[in-house]
Amino acid sequence: MPGIDYQRLRATISMRQVLQLLQFEPTSRRGNQLRGRCPLPACQWAARCTFSVDVGRGIFRCFACRADGNQLDLWALFNRLPLHEAAKSLCHKTHTPIPWLASRKG
User: Fold this and answer.
1) Cβ(4)–Cβ(99) under 8 Å?
2) 105: pLDDT confidence band, cut at 50, 70 and 90?
3) Own/partner long-range contacts of 66-74 (Cβ < 8 Å, ≥24 apart)
4) Residues forming a β-bridge with 62
5) Domain 6-93 classified CATH 3.90.580.10?
6) Phi, then psi, of 35 in degrees rounded to 5
């Protein structure tokens, strides 16, 4: 299975794009900081304002279910996919070419 350049993917697809795909509606905003209901299906406390995301830094945290990470992690958790499959899925959904790693021959 060919590798994916996750760093390049995160630089190409923003946290804001992922939040739009998840239809996240913040209940409060302060600069790049957004707060609202956790969009993750596994979160038991989705009714509360426990989800915090910094769109400038591309990181999120849910203080209820303890999920955190970057936009690719969020997409993987939301869709319950392993990271490799989530990366391919996110690229497909955003019409972004998959940033494959160049194969290295010894």
Assistant:
1) yes
2) low
3) 67/38, 67/40, 67/42, 67/43, 70/10, 70/15, 71/10, 71/13, 71/14, 71/15, 71/17, 71/18, 72/6, 72/9, 72/10, 72/13, 72/18, 74/15, 74/18, 74/22, 74/39, 74/40
4) 51
5) yes
6) -135, 150
CA distance 2 to 102: 9
The pLDDT tens digits of the residues spanning 18-52 come to 999 999 999 999 999 999 999 999 887 656 778 99
**What are the φ/ψ torsions at residue 17 (nearest 5 degrees)?**
-65, -45
Query: Per-residue pLDDT tens for 51-69?
Result: 999 999 999 999 999 999 9
Helix ranges (DSSP H) in 1-106: 6-12, 15-21, 71-79, 83-94
Res. 1: pLDDT tops 80 = no
Amino acid identity, residue 6?
Y
Name the token pair of 5. 């350049």
